[in-house]
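In line with agreed milestones, the collection of sequences with tokenised folds has grown. One record among many is set out beneath this paragraph:
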Amino acid sequence: MWPIILLLLSILLIVFLTNRLKLHPFFSLILAAFFYGSLNSNISLSEVIISINNGFGKTLGYIGIVILAGSIIGKFLENSGGAFRMADYAYRKLGKKRVTWANGILGYIISIPVFCDAAFIILSPLSRSLAKRAAVPVASCAISLSLGLYLTHSMVPPTPGPVAAAGIIEADLGLIIIFAIIVSIAGLVAGVTFAKYAGRKVILPYEEVSDNIPDLNKTPGVFKSIIPILLPLILIILRSISNYPSHPFGGGMLIEILDIIGQPVVALIIGALISFGLPAKFEKGMLSSSGWVGEAVTGAAGIIVITGAGGAFGQVLKDSGIGDVIQDNLTGLEGIGIWLPFIIASALKTAQGSSTVAIITTAGLVAPMLPVLGLDDPNSRALAVIAIGAGSMMISHTNDSFFWVVSQMTKLNLSQGLKLQSLGSVVVGLVTGFVVWILNMLF
């Protein structure tokens, strides 16, 4: 049982280092890998070092460019005003009576390439302004927006967390996207419904904030704005479907081309290249190290190194034989199945605050356990990634930076923030967790 006890101690060490000592998650994960490996008699210290190097490189080799390209798409969508244009379009088309739904749907779409914190800051002024015009509670619109953002941020690639987990667990990105869309839509319905009714009881003053609202005449069109998001997703999904054993699309040159452009790296680079056409006036400086591409690279760097560290930690666990140890000592884990990744991610999220860190750490922990849990086939691996994402949403509270972005931008006090944002994260987390469980039974 010592390796299992050591694993639990390693989890506690990660939480302590990141939450109490405020150490960067990269160092927390690497130190946890050394801690676990050095005290485990099944693996020598020299093998631990090799595992850390191999795990770090292998993980980044699979998803590093994908995360970076997704970050570039998000930065161009953000800086060009494309995100704002899509928001304005959705609000106008759905009408005043559906402003709460418009917030949730917009958050759901925008957060696929744009980090949820930044997206909320961008869209919050327009959301508050339209809440006033539609005579809808500000709190309802804000929480609907935040939960919509949270869902895709936690579950739908190319958001860094799910992409990183896919690399660590070695799951098919196309299958993840297909299942994640189904699961997250169920979460969106639950989240918007919660926001609509819970927000009615919170009275906030209407304020029309116009400082950050761009000139719509200088922003790209709606179709032009959404193409860099949708096209890569479509290409990745089509490639995954074409690779099914039944070969639904047949064979030939078209399938060979799809197999290339549907590779996540290629698909996301295509999306990034298309996003270069979003600015009203393109300047070469945007592609420089100090321009928009440079900003995207800087923003993605932290996520990339954390992802690599998570892969290193997971490789040490795998090479130490933790999967065999768990199988020999803990019987009946098949009954827990898909819920174990969800529970671990929930515990880590609640303890240390970061959804991305919770996702990456959990992926490293559960990757060696998947065969024992009965989650070793392609569908189950994809659903395990989504279960981790679902768990990583709960609970968003005072140690989560997004909690403070939402509460401060919306002018919620602490009690109101806990009743709306925190409880809302529990609602969408549990609903999506149950949907993942059902899909796992079906597939």
Q: What stands out?
A: Residues 45-79 form the longest helix (35 residues).
